[in-house]
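Long-time lurker, first post. I've been practising inverse folding by hand and with some scripts of my own, and I keep getting stuck on stretches where the structure tokens seem ambiguous. Below is the full token string for one chain I'm working on. Before anyone asks, I'm not after the true native sequence, just a reasonable design that respects the backbone. If someone could post their per-position residues I'd love to compare against what I wrote down in my notebook.
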């Protein structure tokens, strides 16, 4: 019985450690799945295919997300590094200026920056509520969240600087003045204003996170469409398919050749189609597109069963 305490404590530590690892991994997997889904949905919608009909697995969507998130994964760390460098420079500037510049002068500058952030946030919110009139604007879904995130970020950072200035004043103030300010802070906590400020700060960070999420989803959607357009311009890089069928398919897309196979004993396939490319393979079907892109093209869905015979051609590149 004496050993139950340490064992239970150790088990609790293992569970806590496992939870601290599993939770971020689960969240990361969910984000990768979502952005992979958004990108793939946009990509295959270009070819008239609903991504849900393909039957991609969760792992399949996750594996497709890195290419989509390449730009955000490069931009956001660089932006974070730039922000940290700028933050260090600003705090040093404030500390060095405090000796020969009045605190009120510095505070006015910070407050003006917060007003600027509020103006940027207001523009973003106005764009948000004018969506019915601006939804056809190509850059709407990217500019709007970026303005909201930028404005909210400036407001949050300016508020942090004001708190930093207040702490500097308390450290430099005489004991009586510092005691008075501590009393005012205690009274603010008692009347709930400090709690309200914390809630407002938390809500600002939620707005920033949601805006960044929206902007990243927009980038993922644009990336998927760009991938589709690149594939349409380079159909020759997709696997070439020869399709034999039992019945005539009546395909009239440009570039597709139909050949009637000569009758022979035991032959069950009567028609051969060339000029097809494999766009993607789902769980039990293939999605084929014509060899040459045209506005009148369509995507052919072929089941992977005994009703068809599929051959993949070698590339015309001798070793």
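-- Answer (accepted) --
I ran through it position by position. Result:
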């Amino acid at each position: 019985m004496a050993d139950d305490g340490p064992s239970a404590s150790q088990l609790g530590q293992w569970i806590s450690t496992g939870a601290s690892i599993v939770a971020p991994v689960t969240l990361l997997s969910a984000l990768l799945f979502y952005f992979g889904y958004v990108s793939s949905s946009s990509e295959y919608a270009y070819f008239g295919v609903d991504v849900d009909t393909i039957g991609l697995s969760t792992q399949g969507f996750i594996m497709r997300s890195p290419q989509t998130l390449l730009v955000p994964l490069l931009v956001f760390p660089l932006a974070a590094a730039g922000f940290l460098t700028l933050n260090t420079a600003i705090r040093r500037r404030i500390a060095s200026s405090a000796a020969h510049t009045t605190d009120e002068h510095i505070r006015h500058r910070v407050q003006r920056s917060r007003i600027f952030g509020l103006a940027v946030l207001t523009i973003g919110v106005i764009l948000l509520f004018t969506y019915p009139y601006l939804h056809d604007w190509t850059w709407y879904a990217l500019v709007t969240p970026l303005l909201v995130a930028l404005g909210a970020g400036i407001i949050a950072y300016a508020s942090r600087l004001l708190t930093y200035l207040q702490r500097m004043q308390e450290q430099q103030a005489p004991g009586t003045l510092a005691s008075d300010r501590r009393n005012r802070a205690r009274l603010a906590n008692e009347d709930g204003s400090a709690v309200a400020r914390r809630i407002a700060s938390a809500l600002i960070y939620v707005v920033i996170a949601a805006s960044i999420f929206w902007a990243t989803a927009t980038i993922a959607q644009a990336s998927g469409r760009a991938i589709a357009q690149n594939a349409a311009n380079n159909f020759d890089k997709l696997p070439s398919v020869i399709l034999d069928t039992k019945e005539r398919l009546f395909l009239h897309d440009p570039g597709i050749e139909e050949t009637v196979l000569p009758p022979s004993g035991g032959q069950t396939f009567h028609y051969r189609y060339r000029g097809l490319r494999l766009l993607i393979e789902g769980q039990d079907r293939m999605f084929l597109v014509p060899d040459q892109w045209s506005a009148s093209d369509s995507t052919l869905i072929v089941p992977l069963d005994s009703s068809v015979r599929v051959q993949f051609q070698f590339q015309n590149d001798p070793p």
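A couple of notes from the structure itself: Strands lie at 240-245, 257-260, 271-281, 285-290, 300-303, 308-312. Residues 4-45 form the longest helix (42 residues). Happy to go over any region you disagree with.
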